[in-house]
């Protein structure tokens, strides 16, 4: 069989799990659906020990560390992990396949509130996701879950700063592209872009107050002029369309 290079050296999956369809394979990180003999399904993320450059390894290790440390209903639960592999709960569908559902502000507000709640949790711990986009919003029932901490930045002492630009072009803030240090305001920009993507042409004009006033501020070119995730969450509550789950924060 033709090959583009040496075969990847991949650890895992853990006993009982079989590697299924590939969801993504790039820069030495391989993401697969995994199936257990008892019928369970999970998401397996593995680092190719043969190929990756030091930065890829550093990023994978950071994602692993964050996955082990963080626990929130708005983040994917880590089921098991090893040195070069992570096994997450399986989540579906993705927001990419549910865009029309959230064109209606009555549905969009709770979605945005759920993501703002997760961002409040991350930002409160000095973690900036840096890659908030529809493909990284998946669902556990009606709960929006933010996945892929592979591009996450740390507000303090980030050894990866300035070594690469992370994020997706259509969603990342201007300062993120300019290589600025990780800052929570970058995720606020991306969240507002995501809201615009869901709301469509009518966009902000039909947003319930006080959202209509605050959402455009999320796209301020000065990051310090953007509201925090916690302020946004309060605003979503003020629209009266979001009842937070008890103990969710
Ligand atoms: N827990 C999960 N359950 C189901 N699908 C997932 C899960 N996590 C990620 N995915 C899907 O796999 C894709 C690749 O995973 P991701 O963590 O984004 O890896 P990377 O971007 O580093 O390749 C995501 O864009 C998403 O569509
Ligand atoms: Mg990704």
What do these coordinates show?
The chain is of the alpha+beta class and 249 residues long. It has two domains: 17-89, Phosphorylase Kinase, domain 1 (2-Layer Sandwich); 95-238, Transferase(Phosphotransferase) domain 1 (Transferase(Phosphotransferase), domain 1, Orthogonal Bundle). The chain is built from six helices and nine strands. The protein has a five-stranded antiparallel beta sheet, covered by helices on one side. A two-stranded antiparallel sheet has the order 6-9. A hairpin with a 2-residue loop joins strand 1 (17-26) and strand 2. Helix 2 runs antiparallel to helix 4 (185-199) and helix 2 runs antiparallel to helix 6 (229-238). The longest helix has 20 residues, at 105-124. It is globular. The chain binds adenosine-5'-diphosphate (ADP) and magnesium ion. Adenosine-5'-diphosphate binds at residues 23-24, 26, 29, 31, 43, 76, 88-92, 94, 135-136, 138, 147-148, 150.
Helix and strand succession? Answer: EEEHEEHEEEEHHHH
User: What would you give as the CATH superfamily of the largest domain?
Assistant: Transferase(Phosphotransferase) domain 1
- Give the strand tally: 9
Low-confidence stretches: 244-249
Specify the structural class. Answer: alpha+beta
Backbone shape: globular
Biggest β-sheet strands, sense, barrel: 5 strands, antiparallel
Please state the average pLDDT score. Answer: 89
Counting DSSP H or I runs of 4 or more residues, the number of helices is 6
Using the CA coordinates, give the radius of gyration: 19 Å
């Amino acid at each position: 069989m033709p090959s583009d290079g040496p075969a990847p050296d991949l650890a895992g999956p853990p006993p009982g799990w079989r590697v299924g369809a590939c969801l993504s394979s790039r820069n030495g990180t391989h993401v697969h659906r995994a199936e257990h003999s008892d019928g369970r399904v999970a998401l397996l993320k593995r680092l190719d020990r043969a190929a990756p450059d030091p930065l890829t390894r550093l990023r994978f290790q950071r994602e692993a560390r964050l996955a082990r440390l963080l626990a929130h209903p708005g983040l994917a639960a880590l089921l098991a992990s090893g040195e070069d592999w992570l096994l997450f709960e399986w989540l579906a569908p993705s927001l990419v396949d549910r865009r029309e559902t959230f064109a209606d502000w009555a549905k969009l507000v709770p979605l945005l509130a759920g993501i703002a709640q997760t961002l409040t949790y991350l930002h409160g711990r000095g973690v900036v996701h840096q890659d908030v986009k529809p493909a990284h919003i998946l669902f556990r029932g009606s709960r929006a879950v933010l996945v892929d901490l592979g591009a996450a930045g740390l507000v303090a002492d980030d050894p990866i700063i300035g070594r690469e630009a992370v994020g997706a072009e259509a969603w990342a803030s201007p300062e993120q592209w300019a290589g600025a240090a990780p800052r929570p305001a970058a995720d606020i920009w991306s969240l507002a872009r995501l809201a615009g993507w869901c709301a469509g042409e009518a966009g902000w004009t039909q947003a319930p107050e006080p959202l209509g006033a605050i959402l455009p501020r999320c796209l301020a070119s000065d990051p310090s002029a953007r509201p925090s995730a916690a302020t946004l969450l309060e605003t979503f509550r003020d629209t009266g369309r979001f009842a937070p789950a008890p103990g969710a924060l």
